[in-house]
């Protein structure tokens, strides 16, 4: 009588390379923290100024735009506390630009690790976003400190708006990083395209100018599209939290700002879902194309 071999018990095992996307990133928070810590530590290793470079770029950027627009074009006279208005918008765009740009290149930059072992590949764009957030927080502290010297007294609603704006940026940047990062593995033109988007983003949202200037030119339906742009909503929410309380209400905020902020968050979440979808579709070719 022959004895048939029993099939092995595979309960509890997961097929290699099969994961749950961003859920796996959450489940492997320790790996994520290691990646973020590594990126933060090596960024300025061997640099004489070290962490001060995190301030050199935004300060230089601020001075260039303030002299060109605030002084030469005299926006400093037409927009109250224009330096605060300008800097609160620039920190938003810098967070988005750094997270989006570095997240797009994160898979290619970590090619040796991806080709050797399996781990949730979403870890890399997510960690790039978190590193950008780490660099963003000191700039916000500097901004808040300056605002205190000019009579900053924000309400709880305004502070909640600041948090909403940051969440919009983080979600949007993560979704776009996964989308363009996965495409960039096979087509390196993606990172060049991202550089163009980042360049346009500074001017496509009210960082350097007031929303009223746009409203005077655009028709109503196009103005609505402009306001639901997640970057526009995030910039205006930070303006409402930092700049507006220093103006004594002398400058109007965009109407229905909170509503547009919620819509922008929904759009950002949709972009995150779409980015995750494309990422999962292209993920099987990462090791081969890298």
From TrEMBL:
A GO biological process held by the record: lipopolysaccharide transport
Keyword Protease: no
Swiss-Prot/TrEMBL keywords: Cell inner membrane, Cell membrane, Membrane, Transmembrane, Transmembrane helix, Transport
Chief subcellular location: membrane
Transmembrane feature ranges: 55-75, 82-100, 130-152, 159-181, 193-212, 224-245, 257-279
Domain ABC transmembrane type-2: 49-282
Annotated PROSITE patterns: ABC_TM2
Entry's Gene Ontology molecular function annotations: ABC-type transporter activity
Subcellular location as annotated: Cell inner membrane; Cell membrane
Domain of life: Bacteria
Gene Ontology cellular component terms for the protein in this record: plasma membrane
Membrane topology: Multi-pass membrane protein
Record-stated family: Belongs to the ABC-2 integral membrane protein family.
The name this protein goes by in its record: Transport permease protein
Organism whose genome encodes this protein: Marisediminicola antarctica
């Amino acid at each position: 009588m022959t004895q048939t071999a029993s099939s092995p018990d595979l309960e509890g095992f997961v097929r290699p390379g099969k994961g749950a996307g961003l859920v796996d990133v959450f489940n492997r928070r320790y790996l994520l923290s290691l990646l973020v810590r590594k990126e933060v530590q090596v960024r300025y290793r061997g640099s004489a100024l070290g962490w001060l470079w995190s301030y050199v770029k935004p300060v230089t950027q601020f001075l260039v735009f303030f002299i060109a627009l605030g002084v030469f074009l005299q926006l400093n006279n037409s927009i109250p506390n224009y330096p605060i208005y300008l800097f609160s918008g620039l920190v938003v765009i810098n967070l988005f630009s750094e997270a989006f740009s570095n997240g797009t290149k994160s898979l290619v930059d970590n090619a040796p690790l991806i080709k050797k072992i399996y781990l949730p590949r979403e870890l890399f764009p997510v960690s790039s976003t978190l590193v950008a957030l780490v660099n963003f927080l000191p700039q916000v502290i500097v901004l808040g400190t300056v605002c205190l010297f000019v009579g900053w007294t924000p309400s709880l609603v305004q502070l909640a708006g600041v948090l909403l704006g940051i969440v919009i940026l983080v979600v949007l940047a993560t979704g776009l990083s996964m989308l363009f990062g996965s495409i960039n593995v096979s087509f390196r033109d993606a990172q060049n395209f991202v550089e163009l988007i980042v360049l346009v983003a500074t001017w496509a949202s009210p960082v350097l100018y007031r929303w009223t200037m746009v409203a005077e030119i655009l028709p109503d339906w196009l103005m609505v599209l402009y306001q639901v742009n997640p970057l526009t909503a995030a910039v205006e929410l930070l303006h409402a939290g930092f700049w507006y309380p220093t103006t004594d209400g002398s400058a109007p905020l965009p109407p229905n700002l909170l509503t547009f902020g919620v819509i922008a968050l929904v759009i950002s979440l949709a972009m995150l879902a779409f980015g995750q979808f494309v990422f999962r579709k292209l993920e099987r070719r990462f090791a081969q194309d890298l």
